[in-house]
Records
---
Amino acid sequence: MSDSRAWDQRYAGEGFAFGAEPNLYLRSLAPRLRPGLRALALGDGEGRNGAWLAGQGLATTSLDWSPVASAKARVFAATQGVAMDVVTADLTAWEYPTAQFDLVAWIFVHLPAGDRARVAEGAVRSLAPGGLLALECFSPAQEGRRSGGPKEPSLLFTRSIVETLFAGLETLELLEGAVLLDEGPKHQGQAEVIRALFRKP
Ligand SMILES: C[S@@+](CC[C@H](N)C(=O)[O-])C[C@H]1O[C@@H](n2cnc3c(N)ncnc32)[C@H](O)[C@@H]1O
């Protein structure tokens, strides 16, 4: 999907396209989080990850270009009883603040190469020293599988793309392999992903 209107359509129905529970990789990072940290959830869709981070006590900004997703994320945060700043903006055009976040969550956001590099640059800039960047995205081995992800192969993440994008960060982990997704109707079944955690020096 290549524009916000297409995502609006995808999010138009009832329910949550990628579920209401947070992404499992993000949830596994809970021991590294503590209340008061500042988080940015990129391409946060209907807000499952942002709202979970806010529920962990993080001051969370949830960013997505789909107004429909943003509206659903606001309602979702309210029903979860958490405060979350929901921003409707294009990730490639947003003015990333400098050193403002302790965690950036980049979960299943697949962008064309130029946009990907621009967003990575902004995301890295927005991290405070010691801040973490958590990423989960589909790898090329996902091509042809029906468990989720973009149909356009150039949007998939390879290990070397990830290493290049975040070369300025310390790699805490970089994992590639099969996982079993159970994230709403759009992410179901065995899938090939990259999971990575980086820290800004
Ligand atoms: C596969 S969904 C994942 C949503 C969420 N991260 C999750 O895991 O539930 C990808 C999201 O990225 C958003 N997105 C894609 N390109 C974007 C852009 N250029 N600016 C802002 N959001 C974008 C889409 O609107 C969509 O909500």
---
Amino acid sequence: MTFQEIINHGIRTATEEEVKLFSENGWVLLRSLLSPECVALLKTSLVSKVGANGLQTYHPARTSMAGWGFNTYGPVAIDNQTGASEEPYLHAFTHSRRIGYLGAQLMGSPVRYALDQSLIKVPDAKGNNDHVYWHQDGPGTPSSPFDFDAQIKFWIALAPISPDCGSMRFVHPSNVTHQVREVMCDRSAFPGSINKLESLGIVSPAISLEAGDVTVHRGSTWHSSLRNTTNSIRWAYAVSVFASSARYTGNPWWVVNGLRQLREGDLFPDFRFPIL
Ligand SMILES: O=C(O)CCC(=O)C(=O)O
């Protein structure tokens, strides 16, 4: 099979039930979304950038995600400013009609590619294996670059990821009352705070993903993950897409740094944010 065939045949669509769950909960688990061949292609491509130990820094100038507390950078597939492909297989995957179709199923309208990211937690690697505390993604907050809750993120397991390895938990924003927010924002109470959210019945279950399983969440959905306490590297890779009708609010967003032609109220330019 050519890589194009692997991608074309290697990404399934979402079922009606999955779309409904996503719309109700702000997140959904898509089991076996990707074929084993597609996962192998993505993993090999990612390893070519970050090394088999997950620690090689492919592009030292990309400090945009420094301080996240684990090993992440992006975009991997393209040059952030020009949109030019920097990795043919990841580019073909992230810009595929299949990803566009899935995004449109979940968002209910056509979507643009925003960003792809390596999200790797390496056991015992200082600064590369921290908890990710409860948060909403920037595009789901009042300081969003989008004029509505337009972004969704596909979070892809390229190898098995158990809760101890750092799979994510989710809370729908409608459940985040003032009191719940205080619990979630108290970093010193993490991860114990998860038990409290469980007792309130508002947090998603702890899930174990197999390679090819994917969680999808909206920008506004609160999420967190634990430090990786297993002996295996957490090989996660994410692709973010957003509704093609979203307009730029003028808020700072590192992804659009350098796009001088982008003005408040504009649609996002096709050369960097193509409609899939
Ligand atoms: O990968 C993780 O553990 C967290 C990632 C995350 O919060 C995100 O990409 O929005």
---
Amino acid sequence: MKTKILTSVIVLIVGFVINAVSQTPEAWNSLISNAFLESRGYEVMNKICDEIGPRLMGSANYERAQNVLEAELKKDKMNSTKEHFATLGWVRGNDEVIMTQPTYRKLRVTALGFVHQQPQFSAQLVFAENGTEEAIAKADVKDKILLIEKNGMFGRSGPNAMEIVKNAMKYNAKAVLTYNASQPGFTAIAKTGSFASDTVKMPIFEITYEEGLWLYRLLSQGKTVELQMTVNSYCKQVNTSNLVVTFPGKVKEKIVVGAHFDSWDLGQGAVDNGLGSAIIYDMAKQMRKFNPKNHYTVEFVWFTGEEVGLVGAKKYVEMHKEDKIIAYINFDMTGYPIGFNVMGFEYYRPFFEKLITDLNGFEMKDGVKSQPWTGSDHLPFMLMGIPTFHISGKLDEIMYKYYHEAADTWDKVSRKYLSETVAVASVMLYEVANNKDLKHRNLIESEVIDMLQKYNLKEQLQKTGEWPFGN
Ligand SMILES: [Zn+2]
């Protein structure tokens, strides 16, 4: 009898201590477990990638895929709205670059976005290093096609496409071929030729590492290389839209959760960004099921046109400039969670550190970092001073290796990673939208400028023409 009472007391005390230690809201249990029990997002994006395929902004495929997404959301009792706008789009045509000297061979080429058709022409090839003005000035480039060597991950180091074209125009070259000297494997990745989504004034093509090195060998041996170029890709006005699902909160201040739904046209747009689209699909579905009413309003957005200059996100920010957006959370090729990134909004660090402590069954070994970067849909929000945070995600090499290439196909998407991300992301969103200890604060313009300078992003944004604040 005595032992029984004592046991009960111990059970009570232990129960109290456990409760005192883990004060996680009940909703967490539902959000985390359900992320592994249902993965509608995986199924929906699998269907879209396999049955429709890639989704270039303004293409018929994009429209069809968006209609499927809308219908699937409806099946899960979520009503979405298309926010339409007109903009300059781009259509890939049947482009050809054929070597006619010293031998006859058709090269593997990928036109950069916004390259525009022109009559067929032939010209000699000349090497102009990495395309800086200095390199182009010292090569004899007039009326020639430039061979430019890029380097680094996805060829991102050195001058960008816009700078190369500008320099090439200045010295009256006729066209540009770029290859990435760091990436063998006969890949020629798609990318935009203009971050401002304007017509590119000179043909510029990505070619493969192997053919780039071959052309370079011929030129360095003093051989004359003659190429014939046919440019059939073209720019045209398109109507397109972002797709939006809103959960009104107790207040109008709004948290936006976004992923780009558009993709390049070469593969299936699976990892980039069927994956992110699937993640926010499941986050929305979880919210509808477990916490549809939050303190703050939450809006999920599947953006158009990210690949061709963040067009959809830029438009969204413009169309919603009267809204009180207090946070933006982005999912673009997001792998399984290993931490959080507060993207320069340092004052959110303690909040995310606590979140990592509480999510102790996940291996968030990267902790909280503050490493802002550009080049995805969070940028226009960040430039407005809207706090943006990301999950630091990890993908296996095979998943990101085929970025922007024909092999970005659904087989690369991991269902397990997706579920893990949805679990952590749903909890994070629940807290961002409800935690009363979290004091949201947007930065004013001078603070945004300071932050971007602190993290050396000013120069980069100036180079892409995306720096909105004078010198
Ligand atoms: Zn992407």
